[in-house]
């Protein structure tokens, strides 16, 4: 039986970021491993010309979409091990139709994003970052004491939109502080919500007026596009805090900017329609907002967990064991 051949698409810098030396050594031990030697992604044409003869394809951020030309040449391909999150940008049903199995390291990102969501909620309630700015600017002690008056997270009503990998991690974190959690997710039933100790909202509109903090965790789907628009924002009470660590796709950001500029709402935002955020973007001048640069999942533990999950899944596949994070074709319709 010929030795398993593994083609690794991420460039060297990404391999160093995600895969510890021990993970790389384990990967090499699993088969004849060919790494991308260049500090760039393969083009679709380059991948089509190289993929023949490989059994396993290790992909990552910005890997090329698996076109028909690539798949036609991938006669031996049996597994795609994605070292990042969603695979939706990269493949469709035609990949599964060829009997190719797919796995993803998306679960690695759930914990840091969940933690960041709670951190942003606390920073919006207790704006220590603003006190630091005032301290460095030489503002008076009484000014800073007055600006420091905040609120506790315990006892607040948190509205969550979406209970996927991240939303499910956020729930116990908020509850640990004594917050009440409401949930809107049409894929979750009352029984499941009760097991998590949250109150399931029958509609988004019914949940919004009750939120002190609204935290978004829904996937990018046609039906979630601009699901938080001007009408939905108007349903939020004055002073409500919106947290978006998911995708800008979910929010009418012009409408949100208008609410921030009026002073009626506040927001902590990690994701934008255009990234990097242009220097002249009105977001850079937005009042009542805490802005991040799409870094909610950026921790060293997360990066290495992505690599470890990817290598572990390849090992499980070759041993004939069930994949822990397999993507099934029916999951494409609702996954991020």
Main sheet overview: 7 strands, parallel
Strand order of the largest sheet: 8-7-6-9-10-11-12
Helix and strand succession? EHHEHEHEHEHHHEHEHEHEHEHEEHE
Structural class: alpha/beta
Overall description:
- With 336 residues, the protein is an alpha/beta fold.
- It has two domains: 5-104 and 300-331, 3-Layer(aba) Sandwich (Rossmann fold), CATH 3.40.50; 110-291, NAD(P)-binding Rossmann-like Domain (Rossmann fold), CATH 3.40.50.720.
- 37% of the residues lie in helices and 15% in strands.
- It has a seven-stranded parallel sheet with strand order 8-7-6-9-10-11-12, with helices on both faces. Strands 2-1-3-4-5-13 form a six-stranded mixed sheet, covered by helices on one side.
- It is elongated.
- The mean pLDDT is 96.
Layout of helices and strands, plus pairs?
Elements: E1 5-8, H1 12-18, H2 21-29, E2 32-35, H3 44-50, E3 56-59, H4 68-73, E4 79-82, H5 93-97, E5 101-104, H6 110-125, H7 128-136, H8 141-147, E6 157-161, H9 165-176, E7 180-184, H10 190-196, E8 199-200, H11 204-207, E9 213-216, H12 230-235, E10 241-244, H13 253-262, E11 266-269, E12 289-291, H14 300-319, E13 326-327
Parallel strand pairs: 1-2, 1-3, 3-4, 4-5, 6-7, 6-9, 7-8, 9-10, 10-11, 11-12
Antiparallel strand pairs: 5-13
What is the compact description of this entry?
By secondary structure, the protein is of the alpha/beta class. The chain has 14 helices and 13 strands.
Question: Descriptors for this entry?
Answer:
2 domains; Rossmann fold; 13 strands; 6-stranded mixed β-sheet; 37% helix; 336 residues; 7-stranded parallel β-sheet; alpha/beta
